[in-house]
């Protein structure tokens, strides 16, 4: 099953639901099928309908929300969305539309972002939805709300993915084969600048493809929610003094993270929020489209089954030593009753790669993670796979963590490494595991580090042997299964081969040390 899935098999896998009455006309654009066109100036779709997690944090029965979004060029259209727990639907959803500047001069310098929010849903329940344009049925598919406590879950994690190559499509296909409840992206969803037109060309056609295969991608987005974190390629321009910034004068469609994603909004705004510059009219247009998501959505947390996720902005324009920020992180991690606790941010604070080793500013949060019982910290940024042993880290002060807008932010300290844990016979860890899963599609870093443990020892860290597994010569994604107090991690390459496996166990009420 490593090749392509036929459309018939695809429909069987999707429970008989199909998508779409739309056909591709150019790369990243779709039109109503010619046989269904009734005349008139109909819009082109630049993002087919896709499911988003919506503004959910804690698990509350009958208060679940999900979002459905799509995007067209600037031609207005009449859309209707119905949904329900069966093909009878029974409920109508309100469609909201906002205008978005585009970086593609071929579509009139504007796009229309459509959004539907489905409120008052039950946990762990599958809903079907249908989108029509005028009298024509455009899309039919389904989504499943977050699972409640006690239910087994599976999610996949990968990052640094979409740039228009073939490996991102292969990873999307392997993610689809895993049948996850959701995707946790570790950042840099698209290259090079996190622009709206890059999402239209590189992201949506791959993860919302109308087929499934190694060279095609997969129809994940129409039924599987994507979580993600803001990363360096989302804020890729520089000021005159070389500080990162989203420059709307240069890129009218910058910061598409805040307009394409619909994620929880339960965090305060960081004292160093995502920096933006540009003409007032362009900034106002962006803010109008993003609404309350900018800048608040840069940080958030949510529960899923027996797991709690804390998702953070780790870009170099922020200071992780800020006391108020650390207080909120502590409050969030200590305030959940979840068995499993995960933290996700883009810049890996413990990695041995050559590209981004010195960007260590998030290391100052390690004592908080240890004290509040975090199990795994997920990152991207390094385009490879690295799994550390469980360990505790005592920073020797803040180091250069507060040196804003610099890639040289070393934080030295002392490691206490759990060398007994092997993930097979000894599965109860002492400390936090740090997982870099940034081999989601873009060019790989340090392929010669694979199976070369001598290269994983950094003199700046006293040659501490904290990396247990490193694979940098192939693209891969993480597949995580959680059932009660057992977690199974598998790393799967783009051909579907398992390249790493580890099991973690912990008591159902374990807190504090992760033991």
Question: Helices and strands in order, then pairings?
Answer:
Blueprint: E1 4-5, H1 7-13, E2 22-26, E3 29-32, E4 45-52, E5 64-73, E6 79-84, E7 91-93, E8 95-101, E9 110-121, E10 126-133, E11 136-144, E12 153-158, H2 167-177, E13 182-185, H3 196-207, E14 212-213, E15 226-227, E16 237-238, E17 244-247, H4 257-260, E18 276-277, H5 280-290, E19 300-304, E20 307-311, H6 323-334, E21 340-344, H7 366-371, E22 376-379, E23 385-388, E24 391-395, E25 413-417, E26 433-437, E27 467-471, E28 476-483, E29 486-493, E30 498-505
Parallel strand pairs: 12-13, 13-15, 17-18, 20-21, 21-22, 22-26
Antiparallel strand pairs: 1-14, 2-3, 4-5, 5-9, 6-7, 6-10, 8-9, 10-11, 12-28, 16-17, 19-20, 23-26, 23-27, 24-25, 28-29, 29-30
Write structural notes for this entry.
This protein has 515 residues and is mainly β. It contains seven helices and 30 strands. It has helices spanning 7-13, 167-177, 196-207, 257-260, 280-290, 323-334, 366-371; strands spanning 4-5, 22-26, 29-32, 45-52, 64-73, 79-84, 91-93, 95-101, 110-121, 126-133, 136-144, 153-158, 182-185, 212-213, 226-227, 237-238, 244-247, 276-277, 300-304, 307-311, 340-344, 376-379, 385-388, 391-395, 413-417, 433-437, 467-471, 476-483, 486-493, 498-505. A hairpin with an 8-residue loop joins strand 8 (95-101) and strand 9 (110-121). It is globular, with a radius of gyration of 22 Å. Residues 11-17 and 508-515 have low confidence and may be disordered.
């Amino acid at each position: 099953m490593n090749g392509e899935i036929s459309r018939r098999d695809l429909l069987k896998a999707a429970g008989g639901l199909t998508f779409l009455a739309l056909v591709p006309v150019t790369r990243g654009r779709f039109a109503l099928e010619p046989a269904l066109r009734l005349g008139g100036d109909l819009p082109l779709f630049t993002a087919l309908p896709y499911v988003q997690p919506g503004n959910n944090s804690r698990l509350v029965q009958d208060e679940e929300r999900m979002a459905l979004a799509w995007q067209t060029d600037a031609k207005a259209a009449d859309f209707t969305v119905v949904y329900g727990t069966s093909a009878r639907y029974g409920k109508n959803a309100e469609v909201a539309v906002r205008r978005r500047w585009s970086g593609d001069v071929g579509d009139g310098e504007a796009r229309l972002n459509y959004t539907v929010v489905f409120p008052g849903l039950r946990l762990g329940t599958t809903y079907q939805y249908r989108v029509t344009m005028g009298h024509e049925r455009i899309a039919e598919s389904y989504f499943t709300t977050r699972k409640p406590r006690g239910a087994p879950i599976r999610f996949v994690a990968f990052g640094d993915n979409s740039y228009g190559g073939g490996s991102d499509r292969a990873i999307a296909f392997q993610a689809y084969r895993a049948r996850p409840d959701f995707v946790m992206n570790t950042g840099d969803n698209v290259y090079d600048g996190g622009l709206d037109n890059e999402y239209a060309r590189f992201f949506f056609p791959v993860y919302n493809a109308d087929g499934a295969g190694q060279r095609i991608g997969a129809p994940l987005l129409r039924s599987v929610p994507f979580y993600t974190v803001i990363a360096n390629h989302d804020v890729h321009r520089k000021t005159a003094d070389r500080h990162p910034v989203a420059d709307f004068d240069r890129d009218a469609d910058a910061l598409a993270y805040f307009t394409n994603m619909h994620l929880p909004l339960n965090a305060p705004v960081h004292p160093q929020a995502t920096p933006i510059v540009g003409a007032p009219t362009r900034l106002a247009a962006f803010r109008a489209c993003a609404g309350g998501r900018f800048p608040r959505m840069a940080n958030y947390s949510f529960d899923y089954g027996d797991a709690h996720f804390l998702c953070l902005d780790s870009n170099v324009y922020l200071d992780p030593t800020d006391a108020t920020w650390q207080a909120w992180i502590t409050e969030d991690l200590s305030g959940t009753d979840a068995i499993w606790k995960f933290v996700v941010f883009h810049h890996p604070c413990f990695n041995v790669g050559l590209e981004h080793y010195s960007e260590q500013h998030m290391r100052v949060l390690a004592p908080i993670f240890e004290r509040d019982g975090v199990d795994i910290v997920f990152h991207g940024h390094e385009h490879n796979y690295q799994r550390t042993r469980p360990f505790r880290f005592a920073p020797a002060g803040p180091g250069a963590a507060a040196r804003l807008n610099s890639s040289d932010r070393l934080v030295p300290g002392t490691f206490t490494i759990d060398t007994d844990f092997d993930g097979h016979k000894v599965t109860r860890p002492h400390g936090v595991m740090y997982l870099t899963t940034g081999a989601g599609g873009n060019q790989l870093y340090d392929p010669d580090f694979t199976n070369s443990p001598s290269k994983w020892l950094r003199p700046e860290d006293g040659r501490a042997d904290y990396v247990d597994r490193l694979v940098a010569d192939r693209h891969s994604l993480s597949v995580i299964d959680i059932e009660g107090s057992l977690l199974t991690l598998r790393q799967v390459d783009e051909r579907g081969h398992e390249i790493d496996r580890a099991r973690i166990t912990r008591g159902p009420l374990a807190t504090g040390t992760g033991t």
